[in-house]
Amino acid sequence: MVLRSFALANAEAIFAAVGRIVAAAPFRQMQTPGGFRMSVAMSNCGPLGWVTDEAGYRYAASDPESGQPWPPLPALFLRLAAEAAAEADFGDFVPDACLINRYEPGARMSLHQDKDERDFSQPIVSVSLGLPAVFLFGGLKRSDPARRIPLTHGDVVVWGGPDRLRYHGVLAVKDGAHPLVGACRLNLTFRKAH
Ligand code: MD6
Ligand code: FE
Question: What is the pTM of this model?
Answer without folding.
Answer: 0.98
